[in-house]
Amino acid sequence: MPKRPKLRELIARAKDGEEEALALLLERVLPIVKKHGQRMGYDGAYSDLILWMINTIRHYRPNTNLDEEEIECTLLNKRDKKKIINKFLQGGY
């Protein structure tokens, strides 16, 4: 039985444009994407998360970290994003 590729390897291959690696990556994270898509509570959340994953993979830079606010802002729906941005702009964060 062949070894399953590591996530880092799949990400590097997907970033280089290998469609099979991207498909394997998405297949691997699909359960958690479905779970969070349901929790987000709006139509299209699942699709938004898949598109976000593809975009994130294509722009991935090793050894960098997103801060918590950046992650939350990326995953929340538009209405909630506006609340967070407005609160941030008003000095609430």
How would you characterize this protein structure?
This protein is 70% helix and 0% strand. It is mostly helical. The chain folds into two domains: 1-62, no CATH class; 66-93, no CATH class. α1 crosses α2 and α2 (19-40) packs across α3 (45-58).
Unreliable spans = none
Mean pLDDT, to the nearest integer, reads: 76
Q: Which percent range fits the helix content?
A: 55-70%
Biggest sheet layout: none
List its traits.
93 residues; mainly alpha; 5 helices; globular
Short description:
This protein is mainly α. Helix content is 70%, strand content 0%.
Please outline the helices and strands:
Blueprint: H1 7-15, H2 19-40, H3 45-58, H4 68-75, H5 78-89
